[in-house]
Design goal:
Radius of gyration of chain A: 24 Å
Helix content of chain A: over 70%
CATH topology of the largest domain in chain A: MetI-like fold
Number of helices of chain B: 10
CATH class of the largest domain in chain A: Mainly Alpha
CATH topology of one domain in chain B: Rossmann fold
Number of strands of chain B: 10
Radius of gyration of chain B: 19 Å
Oligomer: heterodimer
Number of domains of chain A: 2
Largest interface: A-B, 20 and 27 residues
Structural class of chain A: mainly alpha
Number of strands of chain A: 0
Distance between the termini of chain A: 48 Å
Helix content of chain B: 25-40%
Largest sheet of chain A: none
CATH architecture of one domain in chain B: 3-Layer(aba) Sandwich
């Protein structure tokens, strides 16, 4: 090989290394930038009132988003009640019982469902609950978010269940366990950390959804007792406050964004910790 | 290597079938994976409270036959079985499958403890078969671990994860788990192939101790192992049982040319 070829190879290597490193830097840098920007703008006006007080009337400064925090929590609870059981049990079926053709169809449709724009999910819940009831409600918002959770809940549960080695299933069946008994006593417990992680990441994802809530839970500047009334939610508040013309609202939108991001981030980190604990236990 | 003497130590207990009672009996057994026929007309008897070894080259059907004895092969899609296997005279294909597997236990090639504690692993079979009494459960777990010669090593860490054990200990844990439900027959599918010589020796000692209370069938790649532990040996080739006799006969004076070639190392 001539020294020219060697030089050329070294040059190509250097260029490719820099290009890939730059792209990685850009991806990671975006997150760092968003985090830093939100921290600078959001953390400075964040105070105890933000978590405990209701929004104040226009023109009056101060107040908080206590109702939006509770509203988001209620919406996520409803969403989990819908998305987690359907997603988990659907995943069990796909991983353990589904025939090849039927499973293929179900997998394909869940992937399609996952690709449905979130605002269309909102319209779905709007048609199903808001229109017949003739009013916005927590229930409708929870349904929209819950349906959004289903595809990823199914696919992540399925993947983690499939990851359980055949040897464990055979071990259980060789002791006289039926197929379903071996699934519930060995396979699901072996996959539970992964399934939980998937559900937490899924929740963190829908926690930031705004579009499906705009015409389901709508928004509310006051407390929303029960499940039948419109409710505020953090992402919707961010949207409303950010497009409003008042400076102190903008400040509060920054704070809400910061709180929401911290929430999502801590759920993410907790999920990773659970998963790494499982790997360490192996 | 013209001599038939393999230079192996043959289990001294190996003797002709005097006083042996049939525990399992295969009658003209065929097994198909899809269009591939893995077993061709197997007929043989497994004697009660004896150790029977199956030897043969890879893909000869010995593991498939073993897995048919407790109907584990039924979990394979598109598989089909013809013929009969009698367990104490009853056709296992007519019995409840979970009952067959409880009576005919199995230990696999690679140890497969559940991701649970040592105690819960051994207790698993008892629990799924409905074993409500806690004290009796504890006694049973201890007894099974003692039978598997593992009790002394794990008695202080029963509630730790089974994954903390060494490979050999995990395999003995799997044997303890299988023994906990008091199987009449124990099937061992190459139980030592992933173990070092010391761990292998422990498992072989265990087989000697267990055969007083249990009928044992072992598949092995290791002919010395078959010669050491087995009273009877069957030689499989291309899905057929070529020869089945006492271990002494198989290794010293086999009747078939193929068996002789295999045990003297001329083939396989």
């Amino acid at each position: 090989m001539t020294s020219f070829h060697l030089l050329r190879r070294k040059a190509v290597n250097a260029i490719m290394l820099s290009v890939t490193a730059l792209c990685t830097l850009f991806a990671a840098g975006t997150l760092v930038f968003i985090l830093g920007y939100l921290f600078v703008h959001g953390a400075k006006s964040l105070n105890w009132d933000f978590f405990t007080k209701l929004p104040t009337p226009v023109g009056e400064t101060g107040g908080g988003m206590a109702n939006a925090i509770v509203g988001s929590a209620k919406l996520l609870l409803l969403a989990s009640l819908i998305g987690v059981p359907i997603g988990f049990l659907g995943g069990v079926y796909l991983a353990e019982f589904g025939g090849s053709t039927f499973s293929f169809i179900v997998r394909y449709t869940t992937d399609l469902l996952n690709g449905v724009p979130s605002i269309v999910m909102g319209i779905f819940a709007y048609t199903l609950i808001v229109l017949p009831q003739k009013h916005f409600s927590t229930l409708a918002g929870g349904l929209a978010l819950g349906v959004m959770m289903i595809p990823i809940a199914i696919r992540s549960s399925e993947e983690f269940l499939r990851g359980v080695p055949l040897a464990l299933r055979e071990g259980a069946m060789a002791l006289g366990a039926s197929k379903s008994k071996s699934i519930w006593t060995v396979v699901v417990p072996a996959a539970k950390h992964g399934i939980m992680t998937g559900i937490m990441l899924n929740l963190a994802r829908v926690a930031g959804e705004t579009a499906p809530l705009l015409f389901t839970s709508f928004g509310n500047r006051f407390w929303s007792p029960g499940w039948e009334q419109p409710t505020s939610a953090l992402p919707v508040m961010i949207f409303t406050y950010a497009v409003a013309p008042y400076d102190d609202w903008h400040q509060q939108a920054w704070s809400a964004g910061f709180v929401l991001l911290m929430l999502v981030l801590s759920v993410n980190i907790a999920a990773r910790l659970i998963l790494s604990k499982r790997v360490a236990a192996r | 290597m013209g001599s038939i003497d393999t230079g192996m130590q043959v289990a001294p207990e190996a003797k002709p079938s005097a006083g042996a009672v049939s525990k399992l009996c295969a009658k003209d057994l065929n097994f198909h994976y899809g269009s591939f026929q893995a077993l061709r007309g197997i007929s043989m008897e497994v004697y009660d409270k004896r150790v029977t070894a199956f030897i043969g080259p890879s893909g000869c059907g010995k593991s498939t036959f073993l897995r048919t004895l407790n109907r584990m092969n039924e979990t394979v899609r598109h598989s089909r079985v013809e013929g009969e296997i009698l367990l104490d005279g009853e056709n296992i294909f007519k019995l409840e499958v979970s009952q067959v597997r409880r009576r005919v236990g199995m230990v696999f090639q690679r140890s497969n403890p559940f991701p649970k504690s040592i105690f819960d692993n051994v207790a698993y079979g008892l629990r799924i078969n409905g074993y409500p009494n806690r004290a009796a459960l504890r006694d049973s777990v201890e007894q099974s671990l003692r039978r598997a010669a593992l009790w002394e090593e794990v008695k202080d860490k029963l509630h730790q994860s089974a994954y903390g054990l060494s490979g050999g200990q995990q395999q003995r844990l799997c044997i303890a788990r299988a023994l906990a439900v008091n199987p009449e027959v124990l099937l061992l599918d190459e139980p030592c192939s992933a173990l070092d010589p010391i761990a292998t020796a422990k498992i072989e000692d265990l087989i000697f101790q267990l055969k007083d209370s249990c009928t044992i069938v072992i598949v092995t790649h290791n002919m010395q192992q078959a010669a050491r532990v087995a009273d009877y040996t069957g030689f499989f080739l291309l899905g057929r049982l070529i020869e089945f006799d006492s271990t002494t006969v198989i290794f010293k004076t086999p009747a078939k040319k193929e068996t002789e070639d295999y045990v003297t190392g001329r083939f396989g």
